[in-house]
Amino acid sequence: MKSWRRMTCLAIMMVLGVLLSATVSAADKPIAVYVNGEKLVFSSGKPIMVENNVMIPFRPIFEKFGLEVSFDREYAEGYVFVVGSNQVMDIDLVIGEKLASVNGKTHRLPVAPKVMNGTTYVPLRFIGEATGSVVNWDSKSNTVKIDIKGVLADNLEIAELFDRFYHYQSTDNIKGLKSLFKGSLYEADFISFYEEDAKNYDVKYSSLSDYDISEITNDYALVTQHERYQYVSGSPFFPHSELLTSYELLKVDGHWIIADMWTEDWEFFMDNEALLAAPKIPAETEKSIHELVVKYNDYWSAEDAEGIKLLRITDDAWLESFEHTVREEFPKYDIKYKYNQLKTIRYDQDEATVYAVNERNYEWEGKPTTDYCAYIIVVNRMKDGQWKIKDHYTLREVKLVPDKPNGPFITIEQ
SS3 for 380? Predict the structure, then answer.
């Protein structure tokens, strides 16, 4: 009887030992976090369990959600904030406090953010669900799985859309560009433009700042982007450009496409290296080109519309714009132009580019006024050997540099 009892107790102890071992093993097993099926890697700290809540180093998860992160933002009250924000979301958490703000709305956290061993931890489920994502916890494997959904998912896809857009433009990937416009009413027009552009130019495209989403629904977004187009080669020459462009995006078959785009603002600029270029050009040729530019300038001072058109290579679009200038601007202003500097910065047999600094004299609010403008003027050689002006670009704001006699009289504000 005693033997049976001893055997029974031994069996129970063995079972309890197995269960205890399994429990300790599960507790000791590292917590893994997957976002959209990809395992999150932590360079410092690791996920831990605090009061039955998974706490996670804040920076990796915020960045995975496309949130720009900042830390230790101190206020007069002494609070320290952990902040994550992007174009559609702003999350503010206070270290040691259970109240958080998501897009201006207050939420209560299950556990307060805290600093442990120099690493700031935040409650993972709250962060996931605050962004509209789906969060699932598997206690058997100590695994958190997050599926990014809703507006945050749209924001990440839109960011990827623009990354591809600039890459495809810079690499002349027409097939890739087609995929971004597929389904747009203007798809054929856009692709035709980029095909022509790819034949004539090598241009590098990039964004200058994060895009701004001014409107977004389930299937429509209005996005504004500050962009830079840097000319590398091609003809006819044109300066570098910085643009503010608006994009209408539509969701077609579950993916965002570019449905329409237009320019809100456009500035031209040149780097100093280009302005200091000294191409080889026959002296007589350069003299003829500079005389053409001066004559063109004199016609503008005299508001001689026919003279201006005589020296230009014209098309319907330019003529329409010029006729508007003649009607609206000539009667209002009396501006006298004088070139302070003419410099040929690019030349081949049939095309030349001139950098020009222009002094403008006019009356402003009843007072004589003088200012300076910089231009890029592109001229082409005609079949009869004469030169005509192809394009005329006003560069963005400039400043005087009178102490550089061997260089440009003015430089471009970068």
Answer: strand
